[in-house]
Design a protein that fits this description.
This is site-specific DNA-methyltransferase (adenine-specific). Belongs to the N(4)/N(6)-methyltransferase family. Keywords: Methyltransferase, S-adenosyl-L-methionine, Transferase. It is an enzyme of class 2 (transferase). Pfam families: MethyltransfD12. The chain is of the alpha/beta class. It folds into two domains: 262 residues, Rossmann fold, CATH 3.40.50; 91 residues, no CATH class. It has twelve helices and eight strands. Strands 3-2-1-4-5-7-6-8 form an eight-stranded mixed β-sheet, sandwiched between helices. Strand 4, helix 10 and strand 5 form a beta-alpha-beta unit. The longest helix is centred in the middle third of the chain and has 18 residues. It is globular. The chain binds S-adenosylmethionine. S-adenosylmethionine binds next to helix 3.
Length: 402
């Protein structure tokens, strides 16, 4: 087990930087970070308190878990240790449903999104920083292709599936077009899956009752895109990073040292232990992420990257975190994962980085969610693990002991 003590990061920084560059995203929305605004502008948009705010239909989206997360964070804010949360960081942002809920309800002051999939990052960056051009592109795709349906729409789906940025395109156009690819495929592919083998909604023959455009309501999408633009304009969405989770967690203290240790919280929603490799381009499956199984050629489950994340969160995290996972017994039983009840950083990390030995609380939550390969929603037990002050973590019928 010694290899677990010095785990690899899941994605090499150079590899990620190359694809971020190709998709025109860079590491952040702009090379010049915006200064931290002490005064917060109000959010004035109808969607702030809406039930659905994300323009993406994301596989594994946490919209049903978001109210529970809001409850846990609100409860923590009643403590002396965490009186306010100035920044919520979401290193596995995907469709960002939890962050959008937290910011809309005023549970946190600002949000920072990050993901390792450059297509997803291009989408969020363009929605924030190039909103009106993305809205125009979205309406155009609707009028010219999706609304027509049938072969016209399926051909367009094939076009986007095969599209890759030309390096000669201007950077901003590359990012905008990658954002359009993300939005198009997300709205027209079965379960919103962007990569891999999932096909268009309604099938290639379009003979189903649910045609390819059935999840494309242009006015509703435009409103959601404009909400993201508004959040960025008023400084509530502070940035969107194209980074591996580890880089994100390492970089937050460097960018926002004034928030350490307790005015910043990370919400982490990593790919599930089961099934993630069929859903995301970047899953924790080290063999590439498509259609792989957790069981490797050796017949042994390869959970190195889940171990890596757990190791970091237990020993290196400089701010409090809240993690959601599928309820897999390995997670709470294995002491290399979250079997322990307390963080255990090294002496030097405690002294040099100020890493604390916060208690780790675990709760089981029943939710309803949609997953690839299923029609409609199904219920599941979701595991919440957190270093928020243990006395504040609710324990009741909704949040049971794990
Ligand atoms: C479960 S989804 C997040 C869903 C999101 N919470 C929502 O509500 O839509 C996991 C996300 O993690 C991203 N991801 C996978 N491996 C990653 C890594 N090593 N670093 C950062 N993000 C990663 C995937 O691209 C995917 O968007």
């Amino acid at each position: 087990m010694t290899t677990v003590l010095s785990p690899p990061t899941s994605i090499a920084a150079s590899e990620l930087a190359r694809s971020a560059d190709l998709f025109g995203t860079g590491e952040a929305i702009s090379a010049q970070a915006r200064p931290w605004a002490a005064e917060l502008a109000p959010i004035s948009h109808n969607l702030a308190r809406g039930r659905y705010q994300s323009p993406l239909r994301y596989p594994g989206a946490k919209s049903s878990l978001a109210p529970v997360i809001a409850r846990v964070i609100t409860s923590a804010k009643r403590s002396r240790e965490v009186p306010e949360i100035n920044l919520l960081v979401e290193p596995f942002a995907g469709g960002a449903s939890a962050s959008l809920r937290m910011i809309g309800e005023g549970v946190v002051d600002r949000i920072l999104l990050a993901d390792a999939d450059p297509l997803v990052v291009a989408f969020w960056q363009a929605a924030a920083d190039d909103t009106e051009r993305l809205v125009d592109r979205m309406h155009d795709e609707w009028k010219r292709y999706v609304r027509c349906g049938g072969a016209t729409a399926v051909e367009r789906w094939d076009y986007w599936r095969g599209w890759n940025p030309r390096p000669t395109m201007k950077r901003r156009n590359r990012r905008l077009t990658a954002a359009m690819k993300c939005l198009f495929l997300n709205r027209t592919t079965f379960s919103g899956i962007l990569h891999g083998k999932a096909g268009p909604i309604g099938g290639r023959a379009q003979s189903s009752d649910y045609p390819i455009g059935c999840r494309w309501n242009p006015d509703a999408i435009a409103e959601r895109l404009r909400y993201i633009g508004h959040l960025y304009d008023v400084g509530r969405l502070i940035d969107v990073w194209c980074k591996d989770w580890r880089q994100t967690l390492d970089d937050v203290p460097e960018h926002y040292p004034q928030l350490l240790p307790s005015r910043v919280v990370a919400y982490l929603d990593p790919p599930y232990v089961e099934k993630s490799s069929v859903l995301y381009r970047t899953s924790f499956d080290p063999r590439g992420g498509y259609g792989g199984e957790r069981i490797g050629a050796s017949g042994i489950a390869d959970d190195t990257l889940h171990l890596s994340l757990a190791d970091y969160l237990r020993t290196k995290a400089q701010f409090r975190w809240l993690l959601s996972y599928d309820n897999h017994p390995m997670l709470t039983q294995n002491t290399w994962l979250y079997g322990h009840d307390r963080m255990n950083p090294s002496k030097s990390d405690r002294e040099m980085l100020g890493v604390r030995c916060w208690r780790i609380s675990k709760r089981l939550v029943s939710t309803r969610y949609s997953a690839a390969g299923r029609v409609g929603k199904r219920s599941a037990n979701e595991l919440l693990i957190t270093t928020l002050p243990p006395m504040t973590v609710p324990l009741d019928e909704q949040l049971r002991l794990a």
